[in-house]
Write a structure and sequence with these properties.
The protein has 311 residues and is an alpha+beta fold. The protein is built from eleven helices and eleven strands. Strand 9 and strand 10 form a beta hairpin.
């Protein structure tokens, strides 16, 4: 509210991955929202009024209240059905939940709590996977994403804040919180990077690397934002790509355009191989007119256009 947002909605999705612990997380978040609303009862924010486009001397009162949206989804079942990892299924389920809430509540902006350590871990994970500069940019402070027919503006205001700083703030202000027990599980790659790989690299190099990696990620993000402005071949309104226009671009911009297009179509597991398979359809001499994607989807070339279908 201090930065100009007066209609706040706390969204919590129960992934049903940790049984009673997941249910306890839900109750904790719900009670926390109720507690804040009790403190806000009877309070109003005095905002500068406006008259004919100009500031008015009379303040406008805005009632302060935090709404709560709760969703429940069986992530493990989704992962099994769609043949994807638990982490990927959980991420897609969260964004779908955000999009549905945004549509119903007529919201445009989603705030996520990713911090500087998350950015470092994401950069390294994508580096180990062989991602290009788009992957190395990792998390951006402001990012636009289309999910179905909903356009979301995703904001991560804590990317400059380190986990230690957050812990100190929580301790200083005696804030209650819940620790996700799964963070101690070394099976997920992110947990191994956080608890084993980064400490090992720092020990071998004899110095801290987090700040250096964080700088590289932020530089990559700024460069990615600029590259996005250079894309001259946006998808048609029907969601297709024009093959002739795509052929006229450099290889780098072909890849970037295809990446942006696949993301807009909610295609998961977009790696170098997937993008190159799609790019192979641009070759006039190619005998194939269809390539496969993850989750039983494919890209087809027909009548000078590329479009996505389910098998």
């Amino acid at each position: 509210m201090d930065v100009g947002y007066y209609k706040l909605i706390v969204c919590h999705l129960n992934h049903q991955l940790r049984g009673r612990s997941s249910d306890a997380d839900t109750r904790f978040v719900q009670k926390l929202v109720e507690l804040h609303n009790q403190r806000l009862v009877g309070q109003t924010l005095h905002l500068p009024g406006r008259c004919a486009g100009k500031r008015s001397a009379r303040p406008t009162k805005v009632n302060t209240h935090i709404d709560f949206e709760l969703g429940t989804v069986n992530v493990r079942e989704i992962a099994k059905k769609k043949k994807m990892s638990i982490e990927t299924a959980a991420r897609e389920a969260r964004y779908k939940f955000f999009a549905e809430t945004a549509r119903r509540r007529k919201c445009k902006t989603i705030f996520l709590a990713h911090h500087a350590d998350d950015l470092v871990e994401t950069f390294l994970i994508n580096l180990f996977r062989g991602s290009g500069s788009a992957g190395l940019a990792g998390m951006r402070e402001v990012f636009h994403r289309r999910i179905d027919d909903v356009h979301l503006t995703i904001v991560r205001p804590l990317l400059d804040v380190w986990r230690d700083e957050i812990n100190k703030y929580v301790s200083k202000h005696r804030l209650k919180f819940r620790e996700d027990a799964s963070n101690k599980n070394l099976t997920p790659l992110r947990n191994r990077v956080r608890q084993r790989i980064i400490p090992y690299i720092e020990k071998q190099l004899g110095r801290k690397i987090r700040m250096s990696v964080w700088r590289a990620a932020r530089i990559a993000a700024d460069e990615e934002n600029w590259i996005d402005t250079q894309l001259r071949v946006p998808p048609n309104r029907d969601g297709h790509l024009n093959v002739r226009e795509l052929r006229s671009l450099s290889v780098a911009l072909q890849r970037r355009t295809i990446l942006k297009w696949l993301r807009a179509q909610n295609v998961s597991e977009i790696g170098f191989e997937a993008i190159e398979r799609v790019r192979s359809l641009l070759d006039p001499a190619a005998h194939i007119a269809k390539v496969n994607l993850a989750q039983d989807r494919h890209v087809r070339r027909r009548a000078g256009k590329l479009f996505i279908n389910n098998l």
